[in-house]
Amino acid sequence: MSDRPNTPLLDLVSRPADLKQFSDAQLQQVAQELRAETISAVSVTGGHLGAGLGVVELTTALHAVFDTPRDKIIWDVGHQCYPHKILTERRDRIRTLRMKDGLSGFTKRSESPYDPFGAAHSSTSISAALGFAVARDLGGVTPEGLGDAIAVIGDGSMSAGMAFEAMNNAGHLRKRLIVILNDNEMSIAPPVGALSSYLSRIYTEAPFHDLKAAAKGAVSLLPEPFREGAKRAKEMLKGMAVGGTLFEELGFSYIGPLDGHDMDQLLPVLRTVKARATGPILIHILTKKGKGYAPAEQARDKGHATAKFDVVTGKQHKTPSNAPSYTSVFGKALVEEAGRDDKIVAVTAAMPDGTGLNLFAERYPSRCFDVAIAEQHGVTFAAALAAGGMKPFCAMYSTFLQRGYDQVVHDVAIQRLPVRFAIDRAGLVGADGATHAGSFDIAYLANLPGMTVMAAADEAELVHMVATAAAHDDGPIAFRYPRGEGVGVDLPERGEVLEIGKGRMIQSGARVALLSFGTRLAEVQKAAEALSARGITPTIADARFAKPLDRELILDLAANHEALITIEEGAVGGFGSHVAQLLADEGVFDHGLKYRSMVLPDTFIDQASPADMYAVAGMNAEQIEAKVLSVLGVTSIGEKRA
Q1: What is the pTM of this model?
Q2: How far apart are CA 132 and CA 147, in angstroms?
Q3: Is there a contact between 433 and 399 (Cβ–Cβ < 8 Å)?
Q4: Cα(98)–Cα(189) distance, rounded to whole angstroms?
Q5: pLDDT of residue 241 exceeding 90
Q6: Handedness of CA 217, 218, 223, 229 (dihedral sign)
Q7: Which of 70, 72, 221, 608 could form a Cys-Cys staple with 116, CB 3.0–4.6 A?
Q8: Sign of the torsion formed by the C-alpha atoms of 388, 390, 391 and 396
Q9: 502 is catalytic
Q10: Which long-range contacts (CB under 8 A, 24 or more apart) does 381-389 make?
Q11: Where are the alpha helices (H) located in 408-534, listed in sequence order?
Q12: Are 152 and 255 within 8 A, CB to CB?
């Protein structure tokens, strides 16, 4: 195709082993072609662009020096893996990234032997690499063999405690293990915290190490006779402008910082490390996120995540929205509440823009806390803010809040502290697939004593739930809402405080009651319209609360209908299970009620559009209609009238 970049050397690469035919100068050209191909592919699919552009030279060098898939390259998070996928027998499918039946936007074990460990949450790579290294040394067997284990982790990901837990353990075990710290001063949001300042200091105080200095920087790489003298010289230099001390204290040999876009530095150092490393080693490289593509380099997030775009201008092809996003509605509602109450504070874990807290941070910077990629710390920090008399809103994606679950239980729920959990990306989220789906939070929160769990059916309800959470001081409270735009309802001037544990009736009908929890309500109403044409008018209610349940509403629906169906955007064990427990405890099933719950299926659903994913889950209007007809004994749509 004429709009594809010219890539004569890259065209000769069908697998990483093919890179070994090239000279170092040719590998530099391969990297340039790989960058052009990555930009071209993401312009068609959308996706995570900036992170991949920052590691093009590193990706090329790693695959040229090491022997994948026998050697295991573990990309932390996986945002940056598109160039890796192009080099590892997937170039022909790279323009299916993040699409239904296409390539995952992250590394995925089931997709390729070149993806030894799946990721999409950050800070797991060093733990995984250490596991491979220990498995190798204990005689573990994989189809591709077990060679070196190389973790590539960003400076943002290094802010999470898990990375240091792994380094501490690796330093103790002394296994041959390679960690590459990809330091671009830029995770999704600008990095925060002392570690980021420490890394900045390492390379502002010290000149770039040339190769000779880098090789001497890791004493363990030197031939035996030179080691003692080098050690003494190094001890004398400590405290001067040489960095790496923190990592050396954790038991790692340190090399760096190196220019991560300079193949003349990368290739010799990687070859030296491959030839001589014995224990754990950390190579610190400096890169630029979005490197080599001006629109990404100039963007505030360095092109972290983009829609489809025009390669020449960088202009993104975003579909105009008909309604504000749930995330922006939350952000604005919280700013309004904070204007009325100076005790309201906000906590997020490296996602101020993604959670809508960027609006809050602009207005109330001293009351907004980005704790970096540290959900566990963020939850406990919020718990102590609550204990200290503040009103913390802990805003995290459902999939990321999972990482702080023990803290939710021990530090928040057991102590009955009024932390307000704003749970974004609830339900199925589309192109990021199973790793980012908010499938489990209803189940994992509603089973906690004293926890209040709400779900907004539309954006107006979300405004009310922000107000309800702000006013709720009796223990923890959570409210969930999906990714994407709302349904287009009018927003209230000010949120109303809802009565805890009370749902609302949407329409009265007969025979069957549909009890919705969350934003499937719009699909329930569509199903009801179709059913009315068949002479069936269901009762519809919006539960609002999964905990505490509206007992009166639920028992009334059960008593006055022959069938009751619950609908929720969550896994089994959530709202529907709590309703079933109530009905069983009250003996309702003894009298013949037909009860069904529509939940996400017991499987991980791969990436597609949200509508396609909900079709797979069986939760769109047509499937809700079919469920009603089935439970009422109308065997198939169009066969007979009720």
Answers
A1: 0.88
A2: 9
A3: no
A4: 22
A5: no
A6: positive
A7: 72
A8: negative
A9: no
A10: 381/347, 382/347, 382/412, 382/419, 383/407, 383/411, 383/412, 383/415, 383/417, 383/419, 385/345, 385/347, 385/419, 386/412, 386/417, 386/418, 386/419, 387/415, 387/417, 389/343
A11: 441-446, 459-471, 521-532
A12: no
Backbone angles phi, psi at 69, to 5 degrees: -90, 5
Cβ(413)–Cβ(452) under 8 Å? no
At 448 the three-state DSSP class reads coil
174 is catalytic: no
pLDDT band at 190 (very low <50, low <70, confident <90, very high): low
- Burial label for 220, CB within 10 Å (0-12, 13-18, 19+), is middle
- Determine the Cα–Cα distance for residues 176 and 575; give it in Å rounded to an integer: 48
Q: Report how far apart, in Å, the C-alpha atoms of 394 and of each of 44, 404, 453, 461 are.
A: 35, 11, 14, 19
Catalytic residue chosen out of the listed positions 91, 136, 175, 289? 289
Residue 234's pLDDT is: 46
* 160-173 pLDDT, tens digit each: 889 999 999 999 99
CB atoms within 10 A of CB 362: 12
Q: Let me know if 375 is a catalytic residue.
A: yes
Q: Are residues 434 and 119 in contact, defined by beta-carbon separation less than 8 angstroms?
A: no
pLDDT tens digits, residue range 79-138?
999 999 999 999 999 999 999 999 999 999 999 999 999 988 999 999 999 999 999 999
Are 441 and 498 spatial neighbours (Cβ–Cβ below 8 Å)?
no
**Packed helices 263-276 and 24-45: angle between N→C axes, nearest 10 degrees:** 110
Query: Which residue out of 337, 375, 461, 568 is catalytically annotated?
Result: 375
Distance CA 99, CA 47 (A): 10
Q: State the amino acid at position 38 in one-letter form.
A: T
What length does the chain have?
642
Instruction: Say which of 85, 108, 367, 403 is annotated catalytic.
Output: 403
